[in-house]
Amino acid sequence: MNNSIKRMIDGMVATLRHEVIPHIGTEFARGQAFGVIYMLNSLALRANWSPEFVGEQIAAQLALRDALAPLLVDTDAPALPQAADAGSGVKTLEATRDANDERICALITWYGAATLDAARAAAIETQLRACMDRQLKWELQTSAKPMFAEMSAGSE
Amino acid sequence: MLAVDIQAPDLLSDEARIRERLASYLQAQTKRPWTLGKFTRYAVGFSWITYGFDAREDGGAEQGLILRLGPPYGLFAPYSALPQHASLKLLEGSTVPAPRSYWWSDDASILGAPFFISERVAGSAPVPWMSATATGFEESYRKNIGAQFVSAIAGLHTAEWRGQEGFVDNGITVDNAAIRQIEEWEANRQRWALKPYPMLTWAFRWLRRNLPVAPRVSLVHGDYRLGNFLEQNGRITAILDWELVHLGDPHEDLGWAFLPQYSGGSGLVCRLLSKEDFIAQYEREAGFKVQPASLHFYLVFSLVKLALTHIAAVRCFEEGRFNDMRMPAMGTQIAPVLRQISKLLPVEGA
């Protein structure tokens, strides 16, 4: 997910209140919708994105760190990804993941400008691509089936 | 981060206010009073606000008009209405079906945002998204519409914009058309991304190393696809959504139209034509050969633009500019698009 969970829930509540409930035709159904708002607001007080989801993204970054470290010896490459402190909460894990992605972006920029022998360049590129693909595949595996056709048509 | 009060009233959504101000504007433009009917806000797009309404100039016949407003909180803000108005004026009377644009202004004191007013064209917009139970277009329909779809883009790309009112080339040439777009969208990434995306960095690196030379500098629609034209009785009546129109390499529109996102799983370009049929007809009508390397470049670039558009939607939603749930839904598509980019870019060192 790219939006914060708090903003997602606020948006869902606002959408139900302003776009959905005024068009619901029965008292019972409107009551059910307000029940959904109540439960969403309750979730907002306690929910966070899953630490398992963020943890796997960081694991991919640390695998890249371990694979690149020997390949970057005697180069002026920027800093490699780093681990989060043990016992970190999910907010800290998200910050660590984003900081590591920033470092990977810096590595890509450096790699594009560095003078490297072909074998080393190929090995670095392979590791960078493997990390990015691992992160993307994980995000796809943990995403719901899209419903754009239903959102466009307003029906299933 | 921009702080936006999501509970604050949006003056551009105040239809009575807009109608009153627009009637005054039209009277000032034409020196005759206008009567404007009920406004209908169309739930299309994430950027420009679109209203349809009936209007009657004193002593004249009733006509259907479209008002498009570029809000300061829109995806690609700040906006100017001039490129759209100038493009639509250029295409008047051409083979490219497009609405006539009558008035425009970037003066936000008039309606609260840049705007233009065009004719309302009849028709409905087929969309790229298909539910699990939907079937594709009937073959003769898709081939007929497909041929018109190709003719329209070939017509746009051969339209002579030089010397026309509202067009300034700003030094764009066949050699720098690609890098101009890359720089513009890299700047958009700086504006929009709430967090880093390594695959985007990788893709920009690849694009900068593979810049093509354009066959010509054309008017480029910028969002040419299924969903952005109206059709009625087997005829495309209007190409819509010109907000990204600009000068550039005509391959750019082909790359966008060829995105798998618009094929509805059919394997066809915009659910209409095979790539081979599209290219063969396009080459005949546009008068130049489509370069596979350029097409590949602009396919990758189109995916980058699509990912960035999704990233912009995430930012707009996160900042509270919209509560439209389509926006966080677009955010879920960043990873699939980046994965598609990865598949298109071979590991060069492997």
Would you spell out the secondary-structure blueprint of this structure?
The complex is a heterodimer of chains A (156) and B (350).
Chain A: H1 5-20, H2 27-46, H3 51-68, H4 90-113, H5 118-141, H6 148-153
Chain B: H1 15-30, E1 34-36, E2 40-42, E3 49-57, E4 62-69, H2 82-91, E5 101-105, H3 108-111, E6 115-119, H4 139-158, H5 177-192, H6 198-209, E7 218-220, E8 229-232, E9 235-239, E10 246-248, H7 251-257, H8 275-286, H9 292-318, H10 326-331, H11 334-344
Helix pairs in contact in B: 4-8, 5-9, 6-9, 7-9, 9-11
Q: Helix and strand string of chain B, N-terminal first? A: HEEEEHEHEHHHEEEEHHHHH
Strand content of chain A: under 5%
- Tally of strands of chain A: 0
Q: Count of DSSP E strands of chain B?
A: 10
The CATH topology of the largest domain in chain B? Aminoglycoside 3'-phosphotransferase, Chain: A, domain 2
Oligomer: heterodimer
Q: Radius of gyration of chain A in whole Å, from Cα?
A: 22 Å
Distance between the ends of chain A: 24 Å
Any idea of the CATH class of the largest domain in chain B? Alpha Beta
Percent of residues in beta strands of chain B: 5-15%
Structural class of chain B: alpha+beta
Q: Please summarize the sheet with the most strands of chain B.
A: 6 strands, antiparallel
Determine Rg of chain B (CA atoms, Å).
21 Å
Rounded mean pLDDT score of chain B? 91
Number of helices of chain A: 6
The total tally of domains of chain A equals 2
Fraction of helical residues of chain B:
40-55%
Structure in a nutshell:
The complex is a heterodimer of chains A (156) and B (350). Chain A is mostly helical and 156 residues long.
